[in-house]
Amino acid sequence: MNSLNRRDALKSGLFGAAAAAGTMLGAGAAEAKPASQAKDYKFDFVVVGAGCAGLSAALEAADQGAKVAVLEKMGMPFGNTIYAGGIFNATNTYVQKEQGLTDTVDAFYEDMMKVSQGRGDPQLTRVYADESAGAVQWLHDRVGINFKKIVKEVWPGLVRGHVVDGPKKPGGAQLITQLLEQVKKNPKIKFFTNTKVIELLKTPTLECTGVRAVSKTEGEVVFHAKGGVLMATGGFHANKEMVCKYMGGGVAWMPLRGSPYLMGENVELTRPFFPYYMNMDQFHGGPIHAQTQANPSTLVNYGVIVGTNGDRIINEAKTYVEMAKELPVITRNNLAYIVIDSAVLENDTVATRLDR
């Protein structure tokens, strides 16, 4: 087996992006002893969470020679990936080149930093911009993902939005289906469902050596991880207590569009390692059509936004995420309308959003 340590993992393309998106916990040689009644497994690498980040990391680790365990607390992947549109912002990709579209990595990086209002980590953002084309290529070559023809969007999307193509809707559901197919057919990966991690095992010097979990079929199970543990369990938006704690009570009553099972285990389980949490008050939001739970997303950039009294209430040049965060403050009942005209209906983006 190739040696797989944290530095090697972070240097390898999409696996590095997945590790940055989740929480990577390196391991030393020492291993915690399992409880006497617990079933005992030994792996090179343990991935917690079967979303896009976790399954991608598992595949990359297995391709490097590691024996990998993927642990999912639900009976199947139930994280936000299956609700996502399946859009990857990237530049200098084979998809762009086939369409004759041009962009630069530097421009992409600068726009990413502007969107984060300077809060984004410069080094991680630079890695994302530099490696984005490779990630899209990896998804196509390794996982078999096809992408739709790129449609020019408003800033900062421009010609960077790579939408997963396939019969399943939304694109995130297609993405997770194909990732899961590759994971299940890989002999070096064992996929455990209905297996909830309840503790990260550690040495006295805080080296993570594996996890303790509760399985629906096997009871208490210990997974030893020679090469470390990747926490890829998503966020905490379904945990009202944590939302109020980190984001404020006003956010807690916003409509939830996404997985109702993201309870913040990734935060609570890592506390014994004394991590530094940052930007916990930040979140990705979008306008929601209450009756259907559809997300109009960038449709709000193509019309005039008015309140219930018909007055224009916000600058429509803002990103839809900015609008989603500001409108509940501007409107007492968290309700606004988009007014568009027939000319805008000829735009492919508007037509797609209306179809939702």
Structure commentary:
This protein has helices at residues 6-11, 13-21, 52-63, 94-99, 105-115, 122-143, 171-185, 240-247, 249-252, 265-268, 320-330, 348-355, and strands spanning 23-25, 39-43, 45-48, 68-71, 87-89, 146-147, 161-165, 189-192, 195-202, 208-215, 219-225, 229-231, 304-306, 337-339. The chain is of the alpha/beta class. Strands 1-12-3-4-8 form a five-stranded mixed β-sheet, covered by helices on one side. Helix 3 (52-63) links the parallel strand 3 (45-48) and strand 4 (68-71). Helix 5 (105-115) crosses helix 6 (122-143). The longest helix is centred in the middle third of the chain and has 22 residues, at 122-143. The chain is globular, with a radius of gyration of 21 Å.
Overall geometric form: globular
The portion of residues forming beta strands comes to 15-25%
Topology, number of strands: 14
Estimated structural class: alpha/beta
**Approximate helicity band:** 25-40%
Calculate the mean pLDDT score and round it.
87
Oligomer: single chain
Uncertain ranges: 1-22
Biggest sheet statistics: 5 strands, mixed
Order of helices and strands: HHEEEHEEHHHEEHEEEEEHHHEHEH
DSSP helix count? 12
First-last Cα distance: 47 Å
Looking across the biggest beta sheet, what order are the strands in?
1-12-3-4-8
**Cα-atom radius of gyration:** 21 Å
